[in-house]
Specification:
This protein is an alpha/beta fold. Among the domains are: about 170 residues, Carbamate kinase; about 80 residues, ACT domain (Alpha-Beta Plaits), CATH 3.30.70. It contains eleven helices and 20 strands. Strand 19 and strand 20 form a beta hairpin. The structure holds adenosine-5'-diphosphate, aspartic acid and magnesium ion. The site of aspartic acid has 13 residues, from helix 5.
């Protein structure tokens, strides 16, 4: 007998018919003699709708209250799925995050899991119940409800798999696995039979939302093999694990991230310490900086450009505008009509010319590059948002056609 964790995303439980479909996948697994813990997200666009409702009333609402609201979405899904499983004649119990033992930090709306007290889940499994757990949520040591950040149910599932030493962790979604690019945007994207944690982590961090990046980080840390597959078809999915059998592909995928904005601070005196001072202001506010570009000094002045998440853009600009006189800078410019396009692949470590091939694809498509950043297994470029889809297609066909 095995313990299997199955996670179903929002589109997999979007309506009654799909909830019944999920119930049949879960009960089939149970009927084969397995213990099953199911993690579900909120139905369809529920989380977006809840955010909209909050904004209608108070866009500046505290994060504690936002979490209280957002956690409601998953409560609907677990109860409906449990009802569907009951209807099929199987023993089942639904649990909210706190009932399932999810203890988190107090960083509301982006809390981190500190520990899972698995006692309740284990007891329910001992009673032979199918356990349906609300993803995305937990509780602080003060007893307040938290959420784990958008896409956080993937992390809930991997965390349970790690804490319970599950034999298998399946992430069911609305596509058949991890593809070489978003299959909804790039027609000839192909499904990868397997992908390493490191490559998947880069792809997820760089915008491939099929898995949340924290879930991949956790899977790597606890060596949990993941299977990403579709809840609508029976096709084999993608296995995410430490080492893949496949020969290192030159690149495994192309990703697009539109949650990015560019800030340029111009006319900064060309002296030591100013970059440090400027970026410490932003890190004090916990604003992540990504690609950084500094111009060569001329006439004793230099410009520094960098990217931040779009959601933190205004805050970053306000903070730097206040600080500009201290820096002796000329102006702070802001542009949020940009997108970051990246290629990821373990194979590029040992092959020269991968970045050049990407730049050639962009040149062929007449897309202008604003910024570039590279690491051992990825190359990212910042371009205009309007060019983003065209760029992804051009790069994808350069490498995969
Ligand atoms: P869920 O609701 O199941 O969590 P998500 O919407 O979070 O599903 O993630 C699945 C979506 O991720 C797909 O519908 C697809 O459009 C998108 N996606 C982006 N990049 C990729 C990729 N490389 N491979 C597969 N799907 C991708
Ligand atoms: N319902 C949450 C969201 O939409 C969590 C998730 O889907 O994983 O972000
Ligand atoms: Mg998701």
């Amino acid at each position: 007998m095995s313990l299997i964790v199955q996670k179903f995303g929002g589109s997999s439980v979007a309506n009654a018919e799909r909830v019944m479909n999920v119930a049949s996948i879960v009960t089939d697994t149970y009927a084969k003699g397995n213990d099953v813990v199911v993690v579900v997200s909120a139905q369809g666009d529920t989380t977006d709708d809840l955010i909209e409702k909050a904004n209608e009333i108070n866009p500046r609402a505290s994060k504690r209250e936002k979490d209280m609201l957002l956690a409601a979405g998953e409560q609907i899904s677990i109860s409906l799925l449990a009802m569907a499983i009951e209807k099929m004649g199987f023993p089942v119990v639904s649990l909210l995050g706190w009932q399932a033992g999810f203890q988190t930090t107090a960083a509301h709306t982006s809390a981190r899991i500190k520990n899972i007290d698995t006692l309740r889940i284990s007891r329910e499994i001992d009673k032979k119940n199918i356990v349906v757990v609300a993803g995305f949520q937990g509780i602080t040591k003060f007893g307040d409800i938290t959420t784990l950040g958008r896409g956080g149910s993937d992390t809930s599932a991997v965390a349970i798999a790690a804490a319970m030493h599950a034999d298998l962790c399946q992430i069911y979604t609305d596509v058949e696995g991890v593809y070489t690019a978003d299959p909804r945007k790039v027609e000839n994207a192909t499904k990868l039979p397997e992908i390493s944690y490191d490559e998947m982590l880069e792809l997820a961090t760089l915008g491939a939302q099929v898995l949340n990046n924290r879930s991949v980080e956790m899977a790597k840390k606890y060596n949990i093999e993941l299977e990403v597959l579709s809840s609508m078809t029976k096709a084999p999915g993608t296995i995410v694990k430490e080492k893949t059998k496949m020969e290192k592909m030159l690149i495994s995928g192309v990703a697009k991230d539109t949650d990015v904005a560019r800030i340029s601070v111009t006319g900064i005196p060309d002296l030591p310490g100013l970059a440090f001072k400027m970026f410490s202001k932003l890190s004090a506010k916990d604003i992540n900086i990504d690609i950084i570009l500094q111009s060569i000094g001329h006439d004793g002045k230099k410009d520094i450009s960098f990217t931040v998440p779009k959601s933190r853009g205004n805050e970053a600009v306000e903070c730097l505008t206040d600080y500009m006189t201290n820096l002796g800078a000329k102006e702070v410019l802001y542009d949020d009509k940009v997108a970051k396009i990246s290629i990821v692949g373990a194979g590029m470590e040992s092959h020269a010319g991968v970045a050049t091939k990407m730049f050639e694809a962009l040149y062929d498509a007449q897309v202008n590059i604003q910024m570039i950043s590279t690491s051992e297994i990825k190359v990212s470029v910042l371009i205009d948002t309007v060019d983003a889809d065209k760029a992804v297609k051009a790069i994808h066909s350069k490498f995969f056609d």
